[in-house]
């Protein structure tokens, strides 16, 4: 077929008319074809919480993983480690929230084959580890 022979608005390849069911089946079959792995927005940014003063080895959360990928932190971190095959994020030290500049720790987790960065935020929740001290055993308050 020559370009000049094609009428405007006509498809290059003539297809027989398809029912809605047949079209849906074609779309489903096309969706099953392997393609490049795409990482959605939910996988690119994940948020976890951990309570301060927990022992090393405490599970913070598990990064959403894909089969066949391995995971690593983008840089060495003194407080966290990741299981390269499962994506489980653990503490490697006891975290004291009061000694941190912020209660949010940002990490970047990289996956292999191909490399996709995942932004991970860890919110360190405060534990009431400073009990209040009262000068007197009882206090009398009067409202007027």
What can you tell me about this protein's structure?
- Keywords: Calcium, Glycoprotein, Membrane, Repeat, Signal, Transmembrane, Transmembrane helix.
- Residues 1-41 form the signal peptide.
- Its main location: membrane.
- InterPro entries: Cadherin-like_dom (IPR002126), Cadherin-like_sf (IPR015919), Cadherin_CS (IPR020894), Protocadherin/Cadherin-CA (IPR050174).
- The protein is of the alpha+beta class and 144 residues long.
- The chain is built from 2 helices and 7 strands; from the N terminus they run ααβββββββ.
- It has a domain at 41-125: Cadherins (Immunoglobulin-like, Sandwich).
- It has a 4-stranded mixed β-sheet with strand order 1-7-6-3.
- The termini are far apart.
Short description:
The chain has 144 residues and is an alpha+beta fold. The protein has helices at 20-31, 41-44, and strands at residues 45-51, 59-62, 71-73, 80-82, 88-91, 104-111, 116-125. It has a domain at 41-125: Sandwich (Immunoglobulin-like), CATH 2.60.40.
Q: What is the CA-based Rg, rounded? A: 28 Å
Any idea what the CATH superfamily of the domain at 41-125 is called?
Cadherins
Name the overall outline.
Answer: elongated
User: What is the distance, rounded to the nearest whole angstrom, between the alpha carbons of the first and last residues?
Assistant: 98 Å
For the largest beta-sheet, the strand count, sense and barrel status come to: 4 strands, mixed
How is the largest sheet built, in terms of strand order? Answer: 1-7-6-3
CATH class of the domain at 41-125: Mainly Beta
Count of DSSP-assigned helices: 2
Average pLDDT, all residues: 75
The helix fraction, in percent, is: 10-25%
